[in-house]
Design goal:
207 residues; mainly alpha; His-Me finger endonuclease fold; 2 domains; two-stranded antiparallel ribbon; 49% helix; binds zinc ion
């Protein structure tokens, strides 16, 4: 009999808790399920990405299919962002040698410092070389085309020293931090979760 009594108490408490749930069901429903115009979200991303990363051809044709089974706008938008970041991360790219710059713009000891140094050290004029390559490339990432500040850019060698590459400007490629991470990654699935582009696009998702 004692057990029955406890059961009644517990039952009453549960019912008491369910009443506000019933009264506020509209509010609760709204919190968990949001509608919105996903087409304008896609249009906004399309124009944002084509300006920001002009060298990456994002494919928007399969996004509608991707979200067809989802009703919540936030889930739809998140799936779209994940897909676009995936496309960014897997965009095929190879490091290649670049344009020369006019001899008149080179400096003393440029040629001597282009050679391989002991212990694979960077040459003394490395920051000058990086800047010259960044200016040559109009301050843009070679892979995605994003505009980057000098301090946010990375200078990579197209041909590694061990393969006969040098520190000459033709062998220096300027990349943004996301593209550098992708190029150096041995696990793109993990790397794509750490990219700045993911944060930037997720900031546009409806909250
Ligand atoms: Zn880039």
């Amino acid at each position: 009999m004692i057990l029955d009594f406890k059961f009644i108490i517990a039952g009453s408490i549960i019912i008491a808790l369910l009443i506000p749930l019933y009264i506020y069901r509209e509010e609760i429903y709204k919190r968990f399920y949001k509608k919105g115009d996903v087409r304008s979200f896609i249009r906004n991303l399309d124009s944002y990405l084509s300006v920001k990363y002009p060298k990456i051809n994002f494919d928007f044709s399969k996004l509608a299919e991707l979200i067809a089974d989802e009703k919540d706008i936030r889930i739809q938008e998140t799936l779209i962002v994940e897909n676009l970041v995936q496309q960014f991360a897997y965009w095929e790219y190879e490091l290649n040698t670049q344009k020369s710059i006019p001899k008149s713009k080179l400096w003393n000891n440029y040629m001597a410092n282009s050679q391989l140094l002991k212990d694979n050290q960077l040459p003394i004029d490395w920051s000058q070389r990086k800047k010259a390559a960044w200016v040559r490339d109009n301050n843009k990432c070679n892979r995605c085309g994003a505009k980057i500040d000098l301090q946010d850019s990375n200078a990579l060698l197209a041909k590694q020293m061990k393969n006969g590459g040098g520190f000459n400007l033709e062998n220096i490629v300027i990349l943004c931090s996301d593209c550098t991470r992708i190029i150096k990654s041995n696990n793109i699935e993990r790397t794509k979760k750490d990219l700045n582009i993911l944060d930037k696009l997720m900031a546009k998702v409806t909250t």
